[in-house]
Structures are given as structure tokens and as C-alpha cells.
Design brief:
The structure is a single chain. The chain is built from 10 helices and 9 strands. By secondary structure, it is of the alpha/beta class. It has one domain: 3-Layer(aba) Sandwich (Rossmann fold), CATH 3.40.50. Helix 1 packs across helix 8 and helix 8 packs across helix 9. The radius of gyration is 19 Å and the shape is globular.
């Protein structure tokens, strides 16, 4: 069942085509999605049931589609109309919201697991806790909210800082989440993936993909030089990406807790 899109503006055709090419390149050169799936699979072991799954900011579906096979129902929130269209074509059984999470009203729908991978950067950090609370409210008792974010430390973070100001307040968010939901409800894991390419041209494109803003294409030569100077090794170029997986688990219902006892 589809939910029709709101009035989000479409990207230009050439921008979208470039993004798709960069995304495909990043996915083929990075170990990220494989490690994320492994980590998320470990989180899913704590779920009492796997009936409903929500992916917020599903992107190209590299996580959504394999995870959806383990749930009875899948809902996708994806603001990009082209990506939402891909899900409609490939996964007609999904419920799809072509909008930003802040605008979506899932009504009475509740989920056993909600995934929000590399999405919070697109939301002002002052609204992060309200955004997370909205997700949490749509969890079923015993359900898990899984948030994946770039770490402020490591090689990719240093790459960001070489070209822009990387001031995503991840540590402050973790503290706020623990204060709000309690230490027992929160789990934090740190993992690292590797991005490798034999081609300097490809690594430059990956750098542009990581920086997100297409205006950085004017600095392609500087990005190329950065990888040549900092990340060359025998046979290619490698940069390691440090990431944080933040899990918030909702307490089980009183009845379920009694059965467990």
C-alpha cells in the first residue's frame, strides 16, 4: 500500500544520476552494509517477534530489502521521489511514504524494529531528540530503535574536517538518549568498515559522495590530492570509516514481562 508523496522538490536528472552512480560505487567498494547487517542481525535476536519493520531514510534499499525478508510487513520512509519509486517497482508489498519523517503520520502503526541509518545529519541537531522520540512512540513494547551514525573520530571524520566543519554532536546525543530513556534501555556499539578502490578516480568520486554537497565537485582536484597523499597503499587507496550503532529498546508489556519471568 503506497502513501502518496507530499510536495518535496525533485532533484535534477543529472544530479540524481550522479548520486546513483556514486552510491553504487560506494556500495561496491565499502564493507559497510555487510557489517551493518551483521550488527542489526545481532540486535534482532532480542526481539520477541518480527512482524513489522520500519526503515526511515531507506535510500537505495541495501539494508531495507534484506532485512524486510525477516519481517511480515515493511514500511519505508524515503523523501527522494526516485528512490521511493524504485521501492514501488521492486517491492510492491511495502507501505511507502515519499516524505521526510518529520511530516509522516503513521497513525496507529507500531513496529517491532525501526531503522534510521545515516539520516539524522539532514535534521537540525536541536530537533534530534524530538525526532527520536517520535520514532520511539511508534515502537511496539519490546521493540528496538536502531540508529547508525558516522563517528566524530577516525579517518573519514578527518577527511570531512579537511574540507568542511564536521561538528555532528554524536557524543552529546548519546548522553541525552541515556538520560532520557535510561542506561538499561540503551546499547552502544562502535564498528569500523573499510572503503577500498584500486582507482584514484573512483576514490575521488567516493569522497564526493561522502561529502554529500555537490558544490564540492569544484574541489575535486583537492579531494583527489588528499586521497593520494593520505590513503594510497600498494595496489590502491583505502580509507576506514568509524561508525556508531545506537540501540534503544522499549520495555516489554507487563504481560510479556510476567511470561518471561
Amino acid at each position: 500500500m503506497d502513501v502518496q508523496p507530499s510536495s518535496d522538490p525533485c532533484q535534477e536528472n543529472d544530479d540524481f544520476a550522479e548520486y546513483q552512480q556514486q552510491l553504487a560505487l560506494f556500495s561496491s567498494c565499502s564493507t559497510e552494509k555487510g557489517i551493518e547487517l551483521l550488527k542489526i542481525g545481532m540486535v534482532m535476536q532480542s526481539l520477541d517477534k518480527r512482524e513489522a519493520f520500519l526503515d526511515i531514510g531507506a535510500g537505495g534499499g541495501h539494508l531495507t530489502i534484506p532485512i524486510s525478508q525477516l519481517f511480515d510487513r515493511t514500511t519505508v520512509v524515503e523523501p527522494n521521489p526516485r528512490q521511493a519509486g524504485m521501492f514501488r517497482s521492486r517491492c510492491p508489498g511495502f507501505r511507502i511514504y515519499n516524505d521526510s519523517w518529520i511530516n509522516v503520520d503513521p497513525g496507529s502503526d507500531r513496529f517491532d524494529m525501526i531503522l534510521c541509518s545515516h539520516v539524522l545529519y539532514y535534521i537540525p541537531d536541536g530537533a534530534w531528540m524530538a525526532t527520536i522520540e517520535k520514532m520511539y512512540c511508534h515502537l511496539l513494547p519490546g521493540g528496538c530503535l536502531v540508529i547508525v551514525m558516522q563517528s566524530p573520530l577516525g579517518e573519514v571524520a578527518r577527511f570531512f574536517n579537511a574540507f568542511t566543519t564536521y561538528d555532528v554532536p554524536v557524543i552529546e546525543l548519546v548522553r541525552a538518549v541515556i538520560d532520557h530513556y535510561g542506561d538499561e534501555a540503551v546499547r552502544l556499539e562502535y564498528f569500523q568498515n573499510e572503503i577500498f578502490s584500486k582507482s584514484l578516480d573512483e576514490m575521488t568520486e567516493i569522497g564526493l559522495f561522502l561529502l554529500i554537497d555537490p558544490d564540492f565537485r569544484k574541489r575535486s582536484a583537492d579531494i583527489r590530492y588528499y586521497f593520494l597523499n593520505h590513503h594510497a597503499l600498494a595496489g590502491g587507496y583505502r580509507i576506514r570509516q568509524d561508525e556508531i550503532l545506537l540501540v534503544i529498546q522499549k520495555p516489554p508489556s507487563p504481560a510479556a514481562a510476567k511470561i518471561a519471568d
